[in-house]
Amino acid sequence: AAAKFPLALSVAALLALAALWPGGLCAIPVPGLGLDQLIAGSSLIVTGQVVSLHTGNLAEFSGGTSRLTGRRVTGLIRVEHVLKGTWRSEEVSFTYILPMEFRGWGTAEPGEFAMFFLAGTGQPFHFTSPYYPLIQVACGVPFSGRDATERVISVFGAIAASAEVARGVPASGSNAKERVISIFGVIAAGAEAEAYRLLAVDSVAASQSAAATAELRQLLQSESLPVRVDAASALLRRNDLSGLGIATSALLARPAGVPEGLLNDALDALSAYVTDSRAGPALVRLLRSPDVRVRRAAALGLMHTQPSGAAGALVSALKDPDLETRYYAAMALAAIAGQPGWSEPIGRFRADEKKYIKHWQEWWSQRHP
């Protein structure tokens, strides 16, 4: 049987994974980089262990448009698996610059077992991105599958939904991208590390591939409610309604085990990303929530989805005690009725609100005498 072991990640590894997650974990000013782009930009991706590191003397190096002061670090990786590229040697060398001034760049540590994203045509390779050079992973992960994306996503998603990290967790996928995502998942599991599991979900979501969408749908079956809600929100941001029921129930019940941030993500997805009119019944349910934030998001979502069956609920929402909810309800009615002349900025609505409410109430009455 595969040996189980507790999840143990360095702060550097956490920051590296968090950097792939929209919003990250802290305010490090690093450029955004999706997982798809990181994999595509690498000429060699391997898993292995850093067996040696050497830090050179202080010197000046080119930092793009400027010069920077730092030390050149050279290292050697004992390769376990090659995920992308052709490499037959047991070891591969790499180099990177360690700047004296903090820039949010990643580093390697002696003895570290990780997945390395490398670029170049030969040794020593350099990191594909100084911000995302590596992620600590477990050793002994097998790979299989049909194409790159599926192989990367499969284990990643499976571990995001699991309760423990297992050495030798089965993976699937047939090319570089799939292998990478599958190994990513190993670091994100463990009942004692729910935050890492959620990072794993969001890292799956960072890939726009069909395989990522399929994996997010699978995560809707996770035993972890936060993982299910997070996956549902990620799908809604793709205008995929597979997790609409999960998101709706969570927003109405607001279970204690679901972090507020995840509920806010669901609200954002429903109000700004969903355009499928089949979301109408769920949004109408949310329009009756006691939480004003939920009602606002529901009315805004109805403006984007424009389901004709929601008009009655929107007319009722014109009596909502919250101004923004009333405004979004009126704008949703303008969209559904095809009357763009009644779609106005909120300032004009506020200045003459009775006119708008009277118009839509009369419009409704004429259709339902």
Structural description of this entry:
The protein has 369 residues and is α+β, with helices and mostly antiparallel strands. 44% of the residues lie in helices and 16% in strands. The protein has 15 helices and six strands. It has a five-stranded mixed barrel with strand order 1-2-3-5-4. The protein starts with 10 loop residues before the first helix and ends with a helix. The model is unreliable at 1-28, 163-172 and 184-192 (pLDDT under 50).
Topology at a glance:
Blueprint: H1 11-20, H2 35-41, E1 44-62, E2 67-84, E3 91-99, E4 113-119, E5 125-127, E6 134-136, H3 148-160, H4 176-186, H5 194-205, H6 210-219, H7 225-236, H8 244-253, H9 260-272, H10 280-286, H11 292-305, H12 311-317, H13 323-337, H14 346-351, H15 353-367
Parallel strand pairs: 3-5
Antiparallel strand pairs: 1-2, 1-4, 2-3, 4-5, 4-6
- Structural class per helix/strand content? alpha+beta
**SSE run:** HHEEEEEEHHHHHHHHHHHHH
Number of helices: 15
Are there runs of 5+ residues with pLDDT below 50, and where? 1-28, 163-172, 184-192
Which geometry do the CA atoms define?
elongated
Helix content: 40-55%
Q: Radius of gyration, Cα only, in angstroms?
A: 25 Å
Neighbour order of strands in the largest sheet: 1-2-3-5-4
First-to-last CA distance: 71 Å
Mean pLDDT: 81
- How is the biggest beta sheet arranged? 5 strands, mixed, barrel
Strand content: 15-25%
Strands, count = 6
Which descriptors apply to this entry?
6 strands; alpha+beta; 44% helix; five-stranded mixed beta barrel; 369 residues; disordered N terminus
